[in-house]
């Protein structure tokens, strides 16, 4: 086994005095896609935000051997962590080009790669991001993270609320991204998970209840039912 | 994120590694502590009530022995300002409403009573009732409008309304307010016992009564259901709304009660100062109230009173210091700042905000916590 | 007719001053969520700095007056940047405490100005042209009005260009929308904080020199007086909106002038306008509805 890229030990987070993550411990391997699974509201998004320092947190987080749990969000990101937030969070009043320009961190951002993955965005570069469709906004959000050479990508529900065709496009882009950097992915869509995920971390009530190989879990519908409270058949869409 | 003006709660999660401390017989239980506090408060009020009969001198703090009218005047002023700060505490500390216009309701009391006494033949008490009703009406109207917005917008809107009051007073409509000159108290219908230097101690007792009454009302509101809802709203308005609370009405209620108390204090202030000056309507005056409450410790009742009293005494003494020989002899780099009481108070305020979260009350609480913890540790070591 | 023209242009001049204060307030609030009570002190210090320049070097030459404007803006910017670095930054994300610190600074600095320059107004001189009038449609308009309007328009254009075409401008625009996401792109948004303070302080300092020409004096309370109306302007315009601040500044000032002239109740009308706007549109004219 190689060293994990991210080690999380006893991560806790609070928002306005409310505990939203209690004692989460897991590793993210240096390759592949690690999917964080769990029912709605168990703290998956909060875990990602806590890792990034967007929420007040305690515990130990190590990125490639370096402690990052005391660093501010911008420092963590500059250490090579790309973030694709839930609900995209594009800057609605800025154009597509401005959204992307803002995200350029490296001396030589990978503009060609982004242009290849999302040709639509090139066409719409002068359009305000707020007027884009949900799928296009998601592409802007993904593109912002893919512009830079990252050591780890944190991707939060990239397919939420998207049409099936767009879901496929997004998944393709993610697969492309995973080829160059490990991904920590929060996702509800089991089809996307089974296509991308190599490792799974299941969270319930703010704690990790299962970690392991993705294929192993996905082959066991009873276990999925028990851990996630879903039927696999329902999640085809 | 501590965007709410609460007392600085130590938000570190409970340390699960350390075992809970054994119960200590010497540490008062909450009920016992409440009794102690009540008895202490009662004793303090009795002591304060006796001051005019005693000859206590505190050189440097008070201008003379406590029975002299000059000193009683300063002390009465300090008590009234403490009461006013307490009414602001209800607004800011309890309901989390950062108002920059609280001076308006105080001014309604000061100017309202001065005008009613000047223009009508009403005796003091009926006149005071009229003014109190006027204050409630003004607070209702302004509160209803400004509570439509929250946070910083609310602060600015209350500021704007207070500014309108300030403009009105300075403009001297129909000669009612006396403009920049202010308005002297017309004593025709004021009982003789409350007029003149010789009766300063009666005014002092009046100020003490006002403070006690304001304290009781604030305590009552805080303990009431409305007070709890207001505090919950301060922490999380959404949640209150979700469980079916009506934050707007509760906030309006607290706003009106705080304003009414300020109006009442304003009337006592008029009697004590025997006149109204436009300064009490200014935005700066509200800001000094904010300074007092923060100095004493946001969220603490006695902190607000202490803040108000301390601020008044400091303001008085710093004024005297500014005029003193010692300062006049200093080079101008030191003399200029030191001869401006507001500069010193403003700087002190900044330092408290930066380095003493929770103000005086917060510091006292940390100190007593530490002592209690040390006491408990000693006990553990003894028993070991 | 000439009265209306006079009131209109004088109102625009006053609106220009309001805008110079409100633009900084609005930017700072938009990006950082801080209501800056010390903004009036930036203006007052700028005004005194300009006045000292004119007093020492001769008040009637245009060159010196230009220098006074530059010094006023520079002093305002430096004072503002220091305020952010030394006081506001220490209370990162604690908005109420940040407001309180600026309140303390406002109280302390006004007292310091009083101690230094005295509490009475100092009457001001300047180039002779500013003291004379120009006829517009039969109305004699004091020339300092034109100067204030011209300066405010330049500042507005300058800030708009800065926001649109520089990387810092991009960061500020994005930060006003969603500060957390800006940091999540690896950008240290605090540099932008210092910058908006400096820009706002420069506009206020410039406004101070112009305001002292407009009113004919400097005093330690010059800033506090304008600040209250600038607050009203920012709320009416919509917190965080620069265009809103510009529109509301003109609206408030012109209305104020007319109401003052015809009924003598300008200030009260402004407060009524504020109440009306809040009742109809609590987020202000151009504010994002939250």
From TrEMBL, chain A:
Residues 6-230 form the ABC transporter domain. It comes from Isoptericola sediminis. Gene3D superfamilies: P-loop containing nucleotide triphosphate hydrolases. It holds the Pfam family ABC_tran. The keyword Transport applies. Keywords: Amino-acid transport, ATP-binding, Nucleotide-binding, Transport. PROSITE patterns: ABC_TRANSPORTER_1, ABC_TRANSPORTER_2. Belongs to the ABC transporter superfamily. CDD domains: ABC_TM1139_LivF_branched. This is ABC transporter ATP-binding protein. GO terms for molecular function: ATP binding; ATP hydrolysis activity; branched-chain amino acid transmembrane transporter activity. It comes from the Bacteria. The lineage of its organism: Bacteria, Bacillati, Actinomycetota, Actinomycetes, Micrococcales. Transmembrane segments: none annotated. One of its GO terms (biological process) is L-amino acid transport.
TrEMBL record, chain B:
The keyword Protein transport does not apply. Residues 1-27 are annotated as: Disordered. Its main location: membrane. This is Branched-chain amino acid ABC transporter permease. InterPro entries: ABC_transp_permease, LivM-like. The keyword Cell membrane applies. It holds the Pfam family BPD_transp_2. It is found in: Cell membrane. One of its GO terms (molecular function) is branched-chain amino acid transmembrane transporter activity. Residues 1-14 have a biased composition (Low complexity). Keywords: Cell membrane, Membrane, Transmembrane, Transmembrane helix. The chain crosses the membrane at residues 35-58, 70-90, 97-117, 123-142, 203-221, 248-272, 287-311, 342-364.
UniProtKB/TrEMBL annotation, chain C:
It is a multi-pass membrane protein. It is found in: Cell membrane. GO terms for molecular function: transmembrane transporter activity. Keywords: Amino-acid transport, Cell membrane, Membrane, Transmembrane, Transmembrane helix, Transport. GO terms for biological process: amino acid transport. The keyword Glycosyltransferase does not apply. GO terms for cellular component: plasma membrane. The chain crosses the membrane at residues 64-87, 99-117, 146-163, 192-215, 227-254, 261-280. Its main location: membrane. Belongs to the binding-protein-dependent transport system permease family. LivHM subfamily. PANTHER family: ABC TRANSPORTER ATP-BINDING PROTEIN, BRANCHED-CHAIN AMINO ACID TRANSPORT SYSTEM PERMEASE PROTEIN LIVH. This is Branched-chain amino acid ABC transporter permease. It comes from Isoptericola sediminis. The lineage of its organism: Bacteria, Bacillati, Actinomycetota, Actinomycetes, Micrococcales.
